[in-house]
Specification:
The protein is an alpha/beta fold. The protein folds into two domains: 87 residues, Response regulator (Rossmann fold, 3-Layer(aba) Sandwich), CATH 3.40.50.2300; 145 residues, Response regulator (Rossmann fold, 3-Layer(aba) Sandwich), CATH 3.40.50. It is built from eleven helices and ten strands. The strands form two sheets. The protein has a seven-stranded mixed beta sheet with strand order 5-4-6-7-8-9-10, with helices on both faces. Strands 1-2-3 form a three-stranded parallel beta sheet, sandwiched between helices. Helix 3 crosses helix 4 and helix 5 runs parallel beside helix 7.
Length: 247
């Protein structure tokens, strides 16, 4: 697909969904400007030389996800304080999956809670992961950040609702779609930034001079309707810190 875009001699390529599309575009052209979105470190992924000075034909946005999964673990534990087992859903093919598991495991150890790892790399495997969750009966589920999970947002929210699973999600769009609680940047903000950068490049800006941006705001969103359906009482202290409460 990247090669096809290059053959069409487009003026700018915008990629979403993490590192893989950005790396494919980078491998296909060193001249056409590329504006990417990624959750992993773009320097470590060899997309850019640095955040401040990308230095080539690539720039874009880096979603703030590193280190947020332990916070999500703590937040969902406040909603289900009696839980002694929490599950973490990850995509084993995600570039940063080992770091995610490690940081959440440390958070679980600190709280004296057992952590169960569920893995899904396809739509069908997401269904199977929820079936495993029902068998294990953990108290809650942490959905790790991953392009696959963002693309399957409605499936994840629907499965959690159908099986009565208290789950916390990485982006606000999940809570808006009916998810119980989310913590992280809003994807709409990130993609608006990509559009702004694409516009600036079309107007003559050099991507090498446009610093890789990061969202400056992290939102805690709570869906009270979903909480009531799950029979959960949201602590007032948690409601007080929420950026948005969905009735």
């Amino acid at each position: 697909m990247a090669a096809d875009l290059v053959a069409r001699k487009v003026d700018v390529i915008v990629t979403g969904g993490g590192n893989a599309p950005a790396l494919a575009a980078k491998g296909a052209t060193s001249t056409i400007p590329i504006v990417f979105e990624t959750g992993a470190d773009p320097v470590e992924a060899h997309l850019v030389a640095s955040f401040a000075r990308p230095g080539s034909n690539l720039t874009g946005a880096n979603i703030l996800v590193a280190g947020l999964n332990p916070k999500r673990f703590e937040l969902v534990l406040k909603l289900v304080p009696g839980a002694n087992v929490i599950a973490l859903l990850v995509n084993p093919n995600y570039l940063g999956v080992e770091a995610i598991v490690h940081e959440v495991q440390e958070a679980a150890n600190a709280k004296g809670v057992q952590l169960r790892i569920l893995k899904a790399a396809t739509e069908n495997e997401i269904d199977a992961a929820f079936a495993t969750f029902i068998q294990l009966r953990p108290g809650a589920l942490v959905i790790a950040n991953d392009p696959l999970f963002s693309a399957r947002r409605d499936q994840l929210v629907s499965l959690a609702s159908r099986h009565g699973v208290p789950a916390i999600y990485p982006f606000g769009e999940f809570a808006t779609a009916g998810g119980l609680i989310s913590y992280g940047p809003r994807l709409a903000t990130v993609y608006r930034l990509l559009g702004t950068y694409a516009g600036r490049i079309l107007a003559g800006a050099n991507p090498a001079d446009l610093p890789v941006q990061r969202p400056t705001e992290l939102d805690l969103m709570i869906n009270l309707k979903t909480a009531r359906e799950l029979g959960l009482v949201v602590p007032p202290s948690l409601l007080a810190t929420a950026d948005e409460v969905i009735e």
